[in-house]
Amino acid sequence: MTVQIHDGTSWHAVCTLDDLQPGRGRAVLLDGDRQVALFLGRAGDLYAVDNLDPFSGAQVLSRGLIGSRGDRPTLASPMYKQVFDLTDGRCLDEDTAPDGAPAVLRLWPVRLAPEGEVV
Amino acid sequence: MTIDDRTVRDLVLVGHGMVGQRFLEAWTEQPAARGWRVTVLAEEPRPAYDRVHLSSLFDGRTAEDLSLCPPGFLAEHGIDLRLGDPVTAIDRAGRTVTTRSGTEVRYDVLVLATGSVPFVPPVPGKDAAGCHVYRTIEDLDAIRADAEAAGTGVVVGGGLLGLEAAGALRAGGLSTHVVEFAPRLMAVQVDDGGGAVLRRKIEDLGVTVHTSAGASGVVTGPDGRVTALALSDGRELPADLVVFSAGVRARDQLARDCDLPVGQRGGIVVDEHCRTADPAILAIGECAQAADGRVYGLVAPGYQMAETAARTVAGLAGEGAGPTGEGFTGADTSTKLKLLGVDVASFGDPHGTAEGALDVLYSDSRSGVYRKLVIGQDGALLGGVLVGDTDAYGTLRPLAVAGKPLTVAPEQLVLPAGFANAGPVALPDDAVLCSCHNVTQGAVRAAVHEQGCDSVAAVKKCTRAGTGCGSCLKQLGTVVTEELEAAGVSTDKGLCEHFTHTRAELYEIVRVTGITTFTDLLDRHGNGEGCEICKPTVASILASLGNGHILDGEQGALQDSNDHFLANIQRNGSYSVVPRVPGGEITPEGLIVIGEIARDHGLYTKITGGQRIDLFGATVDQLPVIWRKLVDAGFESGHAYGKALRTVKSCVGETWCRYGVQDSTALAIELELRYRGLRSPHKLKSAVSGCARECAEARSKDFGIIATSAGWNLYVGGNGGMTPRHADLLAADLDRETLIRTIDRYLMFYIRTADRLERTSVWLERLEGGLDHLRAVVLDDSLGIAAELDDLMARHVGGYQDEWAETLADPDRMRRFASFVNAPGTPDPAVTFVPERGQIRPARAGEAGQTLTAPVPVLVAGSRLEVLTP
């Protein structure tokens, strides 16, 4: 089984489930420079969001800690610890990033598919 | 006022300082702002910045750090900011302004936010080379440039700004004098007693204070540069640099030139809606004389005026509508600050000018604490002065500003904690908690029980309270907790929403039950999935209790940003590496190896304050390669990334030093090796000094040892950082064995009972019974746990393994050290650097940097970023 991320055009196999540690993330490189943060929850759930932390401007979100707030799965940035909702990408602590833009992470479709099944 | 029927109307703001920027923010939030074109005409060459924290430029912050204008803000709102082109004239009849460059700009509404200029006493020689004022970033740059060649600096003016300037000179390494005309420092804010305590504290820092003395002339040398400052009392202070900081004057010339009324002592006269005599012109901040006849030189009133003015303009913009909302009729001028590291606060009427006002005061010049409360005839709190300890400011200021009677005897509020048994002081609901944003206690309570805010964070978001200077945050927390408890919401002391236990309770649970995984702990004692608070806390507890390598199994998923890669994450997502150098002792071979590794990988190197060499700029992929070389050369992890023992600093001691009485280096090395890798609630630092001269600065550490001719003195609970504290003497003249056993127990007792991220200093102050209790526990075993503590430490010392050597030896642990899971070996292209002073630094936004590692071969060393010397 491979973990696949959809970049808007097609699915890309990025790793196997074994490459991921439950409760932790890894960074994925798409198109040579687009960075996506990929996470595996303890229950086997997969999440993929932008790797760019809007608060620090660094590509580091894959190194954050995942967890929960209420019943929502969350991601805490490793830089200044803002917490994001993994189901809609919204920052739960602050509405806007320092540059004035809304602090919302793009969500990337992610799935587990049999090896070779890439469209 | 009538506004033309043109579709686009022109708002012109003159000045882009702190108040001008706040006006723009408030204006752009007004619905009426649509359809207006905003032009800002500013004199300074850069957008608004935080003038209040100018002196931090001497502590390594940059002009960019101080910027108040968020990137994208101007573009988003279509604001045309023209820097370096100040307005030189206003044509009220034609509704135009002319700028220095000759440009004419028309306006429908003109807002003046021109601030103030520093006042320089008219003394002969005041314009000589080496004389400065303290107002802008350019002023500071000029002072800094001069300070490099200067040995002595004199500040004229012992008020708020003068002491700020003195702090900056002192930070720049100058021998610093302050000359104040009044008989005391900060004459406006504090009284004689407070001024005396403040003076003593400042003089203890090495700043020389001359009060009741004015500047009578600047003495210059043959080259025209200042050589001394002549004082009104006949003395001459030798000086290479003079900073005038004797107050400010409202910048109202533009208004004077176009016949707008100004106050007797300056300041454009405005009404409570910030309107001048010309309804199309408003004035805000330090250039204005407010409706109460005062010119405010503080930023909080300026911000309130900015918000008032934004509402006024919005009201004018509406059809035939007048100004809306509350006006600005005056502000609280209470202040709380840290000047030269000394806490000073004054609030309400600190001088007791009201008839029949009485003082209640406590003064301890030994510890540098001064507290005075001014009480009115009816028992109401009118004001006060606090020097040296300003903790009570958050409660007292709102009471004084509201003029409310105290609910406890005033003497209880000024006495030190040990003597006082004051209960909580009840604040009235109309008391202003946050003066930056003018939020009352009532508004905070309403946010909790009417708008459902269930945390300080939520209240901050909803009311803006606590988002300004932050001095009210403690009080805000108290009110929010009280309100939640009153509403029946339990505010347990639990770690986070996933555990209702404190860290100390979780430690006991793990210790007693032998639970070894987070999942197990969460399933049996918590709920949910965990978070960034409980996961690293549990990781630390598991590590303190010896559960193997911190990256193994599920433990690896709990580690915080630094521990996750056993390195320190830096601002651009790169990492720094710190090999352990026990006691700071290093061989030439060791230095050469570190130098070679840094050179081969193009890393930035810096000697740290803790006697380490820090190597910056590594990507995740490079960490193992760098550590392979370090481990091969005999280095091990310095744990600079962990909440763990960081360093044991030392002086050279009796081996080399002619004053040393013991071998401090040998002891520092022994202690560092003993406690290396010990995970704790907060990072731990230590130092050993070989004599009472204290060259290792042991008393600023969590535990510090100072040699005596009879043995070793052990100090505990010190720290540097934001709230520095000198360590307390726990035991004196100990022999080596007793010393080490005492430290073992102290550390283990702390690890066992401290809260998450609680430093030893805070823990010690919270510990019931304080130092005496600690002494009883670790020296006399009053709790009967000494054997347990000894045993825990013995297990730590015996079980220590170098984390990096173990990591390199295990392919499973190594798998995580790749920047990308789908492209192992490809370094992170987002981590880029530019050369500076012959080394690298992270590229800033908009700067074209280079990556440090070539994209193709992995695990190959070699310098890859060409470092250009300017």
Automatic annotation (TrEMBL), chain A:
Gene Ontology biological process terms from the UniProt entry: nitrate assimilation
InterPro entries documented for this protein: NirD, Rieske-like_NirD, Rieske_2Fe-2S, Rieske_2Fe-2S_sf
Provenance organism: Streptomyces kaniharaensis
Record GO terms (molecular function): 2 iron, 2 sulfur cluster binding; metal ion binding; monooxygenase activity; nitrite reductase [NAD(P)H] activity; oxidoreductase activity, acting on paired donors, with incorporation or reduction of molecular oxygen
NADP keyword on record: no
A Pfam entry, by short name: Rieske_2
Name of the protein described by the UniProt record: Nitrite reductase small subunit NirD
Keyword Nucleus: no
Every Rieske domain range: 12-119
Stored NCBIfam families: nirD_assim_sml (TIGR02378)
Keywords: 2Fe-2S, Iron, Iron-sulfur, Metal-binding, Nitrate assimilation, Oxidoreductase
